[in-house]
Amino acid sequence: MKAQDFTGRVAIITGAASGIGAALARAAASRGMKLVITDVDEAGLQATADSCRSADVHRMRVDVSNSEDVERMADQAYARFGAVDLLCNNAGIVPGGRHRPVWEYEIQDWRWAFDVNVLGIVNALRSFVPRMLEADRPAHILNTASVSGFISGAGSPVYGASKHAAVRVTEALYASLLERGAPIGVSMLCPGLVNTRIFETERVRPAHLRSAAADMEEPEALRSIAAGGADPEAVARQAFEGIEAGRFYIFTSDNFDEPIAERAQAILSRSNPQFDGFTAMSRKDAEHPRN
């Protein structure tokens, strides 16, 4: 999709109540797109819709981990606008207590992270890709992954594992559409640290998936960490620039290139991994985000 192709087209954005999702909605609206924005945070969705007043906006409460919710989202999008040209699978969560050892996470943490960060993407692909293929017109899919899908270490193992899975799913999507010669482009947004409420997603955790350690971290400390991240509006701009260029990997920062390279080299050389650089690069990304 080139810049001139956005006007009048239809974009669906999940996780649009705040952060990157809200910024993607505003970026799409500024390009003349019609919008379907979804989230479980209805108050946040209303705020995003209010910030996109120039656009034709349809908002919906959707839990992306629920396949019936996502199918309803697809039904309403096509009923209202007749087509979907840009699908942004952006919804994501981070379970609290990010610095626990991997064995201390409860099964509810794993289920919640994979339900939203992985199955949220899978549910959307199952509901939208067949319709996009049937339409046989140019379209694009943007999946929000993370640099955490390319690095490893002790920190945030549940979130990181889910993002590694999201990377694999997105690469498979790209390969499958390429094999078919489908007119559907695929991009994967891989942010570093961004100034969003991602570390505060415990506020929307379903009651049946609550865990004892969910509230281990203080909200003020989390907000302080996030405040050092990149501006979501800048990340959304990078995302659209990547889509326009037909770029698959859209990294918002080069501050993690070193640990990514070190991990790849350890794999290729069959040597034991070293994770010393991860903490340093995380700090560097917070201090010097690339906007």
Can you walk me through this structure?
With 291 residues, the chain is an alpha/beta fold. Helices cover 47% and strands 12% of the residues. The chain has 10 helices and 7 strands. The protein has helices spanning 19-30, 42-50, 67-81, 107-117, 119-135, 157-180, 219-227, 232-245, 257-269, 276-287; strands spanning 10-14, 34-39, 57-61, 86-89, 139-144, 184-190, 249-251. A 7-stranded parallel β-sheet has the order 3-2-1-4-5-6-7, with helices on both faces. Helix 1 crosses helix 8 (232-245) and helix 4 runs parallel beside helix 6. It is globular and about 50 Å long. It starts with 9 loop residues before the first strand and ends with a helix. Mean pLDDT is 90; it is low at 278-291.
